[in-house]
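JOB MANIFEST
job_type = single_chain_structure
chain_count = 1
residues = 307
[input]
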Amino acid sequence: MRILITGACGLLGAHLTAHLASVHEVTGMDRNPWWGRVPVPILQGDLTQPNWIEDQIREIKPEWVIHCAALADVDRCEQEPDLADRLNAQLTRRIAGAVGDRARLMYISTDGVFKGDRPWAREEWPAAPQTVYGRTKREGELAVEQRVARPLVVRTNFYGWSSGRKKTAGEWLTEALRLGKPITLFHDFYFTPIYVADLVERLAILMESEAVGTFHVAGRERVSKYEFGTLLAECAGFSMSCVRRDSMEQAHWVAPRPKDMSLASGRFERLTGSSVPGCRQGIQRFLSHRGVDLEVRTNRTAQGSVR
């Protein structure tokens, strides 16, 4: 298949590009350069430039467009709401309009579209975002649902190793634990994290299943940030002596955070017959991939079945 991926040099986009490029004809779009070892065509440019992405979709004629590009910095979105709207809502609206009924569109969304006051959010629950980031991503979801003939919206929360351009949350936590840097982790901030290489395998399964609609693809366990750090330290052999256990009530963020961002992935599992990984399983794989080439992390033949 011909596949076009936006944000192809970001954390998720790069892993997805490398995974799919081993089988399909993939073109990436990003402002930044490709960081994989195996070359992949990347169209470098500003996605917000008028008509640029629309022209590329018309020229490439992809069978799938996977929209990973976003402004995902929650605090920056709160500080610059116009920029968040332009990158998360308006850009998605343009892409959805350009795709229409010409191709399939997968839109990567977030657990941040929910209020976050109860566990295990399901797809049919009403969205009630509490942040600018969540609101603009929800507007992107609605644009995809309204403008695309066979939309696929995926809500998730992932972690992994980056290109080195900037540290991911998973990298920051691993380095802090390894070096014994004093950090605070919250015992009342819950999520269902999934390692990015595990996520891209399941996104590929969704594509192959011809799924339509909204799906949650996240980790099997609901854990607090503190519990996640404890499990990471245990798997890596690090001490937790540097970690202060605290409550979200003591945090001073620019943007408010929902307390419970856990997602139930049952709809994905029922449709595909595939499972989502447990937290320990994902962390162990994450740690084993430190310093490993992007293509090795995402090599289909090296991983076997995820079902």
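[summary]
The chain has twelve helices and 13 strands.
The mean pLDDT is 95.
exit_status = 0
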